[in-house]
Amino acid sequence: MGIFNNLFSSKNTNPEEQKNQLKWIPLTTLDQLIEIEKNSSKRPQIIFKHSTTCGISSMVLRSFRSSYLLEENQADMYFLDLHRYREVSNEVANKFQVYHQSPQVLIIKNGIAVADESHGGITSLNLSGYL
Q1: Looking at the chain, which runs of residues are DSSP E strands?
Q2: Predicted confidence (pLDDT) per residue in 55-85, tens digit
Q3: How many other C-beta atoms are found inside a 10 Å radius of the C-beta of residue 102?
Q4: Residue 50 contacts by C-beta under 8 Å, 6 or more apart in sequence?
Q5: 10, HSE (Cβ side, Cα atoms, 13 Å)
Q6: What is the pLDDT of residues 10-69, one digit of tens each?
Q7: Contacts for 104 with CB less than 8 Å, ≥ 6 apart
Q8: Helix, strand, or coil here: 12?
């Protein structure tokens, strides 16, 4: 999980910053998509598809992390490294009927993608309207 530690945590994080960090669930298996679909009837499931080789994707990820403050039970947040888990990324597009883009955020409610945004649209997404 080294990449996740580098992307999502910092040894020098102060308590206030740590409180505001999103709690990511690594999306690594096809079976998790069934779980996401099922859990989406209880609360929104959010998938962030990230390209680890794209500077724009990294910039949008940083902006996303600083733009949205979610309480723990508002939504489940999934992080997908689309290069490492290409099969999962392809199935996300197929299962939730969205055109694959990177970076991309999908909001899943009641088994369907109620919103998806890519690139600059991610940070202008009104996430609170789906919670």
Answers
A1: 24-26, 45-50, 76-81, 104-109, 112-118
A2: 777 777 777 776 666 777 888 989 999 889 9
A3: 19
A4: 57, 58, 61, 79, 80, 81, 82, 102, 103
A5: 11
A6: 444 443 344 446 688 999 999 999 999 999 999 999 998 888 787 777 777 777 776 666
A7: 47, 48, 49, 98, 116, 117, 118, 122
A8: coil
All domains of the chain, ordered by start, with CATH? 22-130 (3.40.30.10)
CA 125/CA 60 separation, integer angstroms: 12
Structure tokens at 39: 């859990």
The answer, yes or no, to whether residue 131 has pLDDT greater than 90, is no
pLDDT at 35: 96
Q: What sign does the CA torsion over 21, 64, 31, 37 have?
A: positive
- Dist CA 82 CA 27 (whole Å): 9
Name the residue among 22, 18, 31, 3 with its Cα closest to residue 95.
31
The position carrying tokens 């689309």 is: 82
pTM exceeds 0.85 for this model: no
What is the model's pLDDT at position 126? 75
Residue 93 φ/ψ, nearest 5 degrees: -60, -45
